[in-house]
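If you are new to this repository, start here. Below is one unmodified record pulled from the training split, so you can see the exact layout before writing a loader.
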Amino acid sequence: MIRTEDIGTVQREAWAARTLPPVEEVRPGLWSIPVPMPDNPLRYVLSYALALDNGVALIDPGMDTEESWDALVTGVESTGHHITETRYVAVTHLHPDHFGLAPRLRETAGAVIAMHAADATALGHFTAEDVAADKEAWRVDLTGLGAPPEVVEAARFELVRFPPGESADIVLAHGDRLDIPGWNIEAIWTPGHTPGHLAFVDRDRELLFSGDHMLPRISPNISSGPGELTDPLHRYLLSLHATTSLPDCEVLPGHEYRFRGITERAHQLMDHHELRLGEIRDAIAARPESTAWQVTTRVTWSRPIDVMSPRLQRLAVRETQAHLIVLADRGDIRSDGGTPARWTLSPPIDTKEN
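And here is the target side for that same chain:
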């Protein structure tokens, strides 16, 4: 058994040194494999290999690039298996750094792909017309947030999609057990980062494969927009609250490094968003009739908004909008309904008796 003080130590040191961590055997028959993410500040996704009697199962195989594929192949070989022995691929969510290599594994190894229906459906829109319609919907939506042209037109990451007519082999719902012989792993629906985000809990080994739902150092991007949840931050906060009822497992995240303290980390993330909601409300109070983009430029980020690339600015304004939706749901602010929409504080409710 790994001692608590040793959990993620090598991964934390590698993260601080900006190097790729090694493949690690987290438990007997369970390995953490870092798969590079070229040209991405997160640097790598952590894929997990689970030993089977006749091969290996993978959780989140990584991006669809040759560098990522080569790293995954080498990582699986270091566990004593061959990539063609991949029997099962469980995907936490649709983003290309997590799902990207799943179709290639199905083609190469005959692996079955398991994921939530909400995310699998989004990956079925394969035609050029589908992709063009998706891009146009995002342009219209971002214009409605008051984003400048360079942000509206910034390249959005391209989803890796299923081939025409294909989808996930296994559609997972909350509480389903993964069909991985020798393992007792349950799917936990944790919507917010994406509509169909799943975490996987192994109560026997006290492990939580958290995907991007819960990371040790940063909060995942929670965005509104076409194809996303109508109230993603609200759903994410509910998912975090539900996570606190899980056993105090070791968390195996999709990025950075392993850690313990599910409940503590969930409360840290919930507190972070409450502070953020307060900051955004104050920004609107200071300058009424602000657009989502104007609010985005007036709140704090991990780096100044004006040095971010247009793609990152696009993520930032989408996250601001997710917070504005929650504040409107709470009755704190209201929109004028225009294009772009402008936000002001809601008038106080008169509670005086007549």
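Two things worth knowing about this chain: The chain is about 35% helix and 20% strand. The chain has two domains: 4-262, 271-333.
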